[in-house]
Amino acid sequence: MGEVHVNEEQWVRIAPAETINRQLSEWQGLRADIVSAVEQKSFECSFKAPQHLLVATEYSERDDGETSVEGLPKSTLRNLSGRLTFVPAGHQYVGWQHPRVLTRVSYFYIDPLGPLLDAESRFSETEFRPRLFFFDPELWRLIVRLKQEATSSSTQLPHYAEALGVLLGRELLRLNNGTTHAIMRGGLSGWQQKRVADFIEEHLADEIRLAQLAELVSLSPYHFARAFRQSFGVPPHRYHVGRRIERAKTLLASSTVTQVALAVGFAETSSFSAVFRRLTGFTPSEFRRVVM
Fold it and tell me: 8 in a domain, yes or no?
């Protein structure tokens, strides 16, 4: 990875900076900062900003050190692997350690006023409580998927990460309210399903954002994402990809693999082939030879 210039007011400050690699990604209302240590040296970290901070420690053990979040007692826990920390906007986060292993940690910055977090959920008005070194399986699963999006070199649909951001906001609200997962009730009405499905069919080769689809049926992105999955059985991004591949199957009868990839919205043939094989079990060429 090349040199990364980090504004310390926007990202967690880590010193000395030369002991780590950072991979930065930004979406609407959400930023990811994937950090991996390249030297097993002592370091310090700190952060305080108008954004919420979610820390996912994938791998970290320390011989000595402490971590604190404003409003909570300090912790000297030695094995931090698999732990989450949530720092509400405006709270101070500081820590230091003498590491026993090369640390891997992901930082996610959530804008309380993000455009995908609808007013009905009152996310921006919620007074979140700080949490230090906890574990929540649903949050962890979302973080794994967000990290995959942040580190993937293949072409992805932009609204996938946005949908994950919506789910992340919902999970943080659930966690803050101390509630368990409720059963989702109701989906899109008949006309809403048709309007969304028709729009996707007409724009298979285009990038479609979650907010665009939600606006078609007069719902917030948060409620649309839930209702769509309830109605179609899969998230919007997965439905879009599935329809692209179904169209590709038809086009393969009369066009080259490269032509088909471009026709269904993939800039690179390799990305198209990888997705096609994942969903069908065949490469495009194998599908044309075996099935057609």
Answer: no
Domain total in the chain: 3
Can you read off the two tokens belonging to residue 24? 């930065």
Task: State phi, psi for 167 to the nearest 5 degrees.
Answer: -65, -35
Strands of the 104-110 sheet, one edge to the other: 20-27, 30-37, 104-110, 52-59, 83-87, 131-134
Residues 217 and 267 in one domain: no
User: Do 168 and 138 lie in a common domain?
Assistant: yes
Could you write out the three-class secondary structure of 192-223? HHHHHHHHHHHCCCCCCCHHHHHHHCCCCHHH
The closest of 29, 54, 31 to 211, measured between CA atoms, is: 29
pLDDT in tens, 133-164: 988 888 888 898 888 888 875 545 556 777 78
Domain of residue 203, residue span: 183-235
Tens-place pLDDT, residues 19-60: 999 999 888 889 999 999 999 999 999 999 999 999 999 999
Q: Which of 126, 151, 176 finishes a domain? A: 176
Residue 230 lies in a domain: yes
The residues that bridge with 25 in the sheet, in sequence order, are 32
Among the listed residues 244, 254, 233, 236, the one whose alpha carbon sits nearest the alpha carbon of residue 279: 244
Residue 153 forms part of a structural domain = yes
Is pTM beyond 0.85 here? no
